[in-house]
Amino acid sequence: MEYLKQLWDLVFPKKCINCKKEGAYLCEDCLSLIEINPFRQCLCEKMEKRDKCDNCKNKYLDKIFSAASFQNKILKEAIHKFKYGYIKDLSQPLSILMLTHLQIIEAKIDKSFVIIPVPMTDKKKRRRGFNQAEEMGKIISEATSIPLLANVLIKTKETLPQMELKKEERIENIKNCFEIKKNIKDNVVLLIDDVYTTGSTMDECARILKQSGTKEVWGLTVAREVDQQRYFV
Fold it and tell me: How far apart, in Å, do the first and last CA atoms of the chain sit?
């Protein structure tokens, strides 16, 4: 298999999705052009010193960490190629962004955590070939020694793409489509996904996890789709 991979790379060399330089799908120079968020945010778009503002205190998700802005064109293209261009190798540079963000903001993540990727249905996973959240979870797990639990939270029904829906529609679209296969009671869950927009998907995952006894659920994504001019303290 290694020989076939080397042969494939020789015939079809990896090229940076941005500058087209050979060697990697996202070269170090272009990766460095993605500005990593040096701050924490509330579940909404506010900048808060607390974990959640008063408007978000009833949300099931406890915290959200997002490495960079989805408005960055290189990052947006990388995520699109990762999910819809089926370039699984992009999981590595995207995971590096998340790990660097956690380091910069000094997030206190230890061995009491477990990593759970936001799931997709078996049908969609077979069609794509992989779950992008799970692939990033594998790398973060290896880098931090935090266990990855890939089959604890499952998605039981197909839903419409969240990006195509309004906020109210997203909540209804994702409602009651997740199930728990094993209760997580003594650990904090680090919930992994690619993009955080309204938070509907992560909050529904957190609701199901907390119904099973999970005490805390922290979200971690590569990107966050926010208006960078709407921060408040």
Answer: 53
Question: Comparing 110 with 79, which gets the higher pLDDT?
Answer: 79
183-199 pLDDT, tens digit per residue, is 888 889 999 999 998 89
H helical segments located in 145-186? 167-174
The token duo for 163 is: 């990006």
Give the CATH number of domain 39-224.
3.40.50
CB 78, CB 92: distance < 8 Å:
no
Yes or no: say if 63 and 53 are a contact pair by the CB < 8 Å rule: no
The model scores a pTM over 0.85: yes
DSSP for residue 22: B
Element (H, E) at 27: none
Going by the DSSP 8-state scheme, the letter that residue 83 receives in this structure is H
| Domain ranges within the chain, ordered by starting residue | 1-33, 39-224
Residue 177 parent element (H or E): none
Residue 10: count other Cβ atoms within 10 Å of its Cβ.
8
Residue 139 to residues 132, 149, 229: CA-CA distances in angstroms? Answer: 11, 13, 32
Task: Classify each residue of 194-227 as buried b or exposed e, where b means 16 or more C-beta atoms within 10 Å of its C-beta.
Answer: bbbbbbbbbbbbbbbbbeeebebbbbbbbbbbbe
Lowest mean pLDDT among 45-54, 107-116, 204-213: 45-54
Residue 72's contacts (CB-CB under 8 Å, 6 or more residues apart) are 33, 34, 35, 223
pLDDT one-digit tens code per residue, 140-176: 999 999 999 999 999 998 876 666 667 677 777 778 8
What residue has token string 């990697």?
Answer: 24
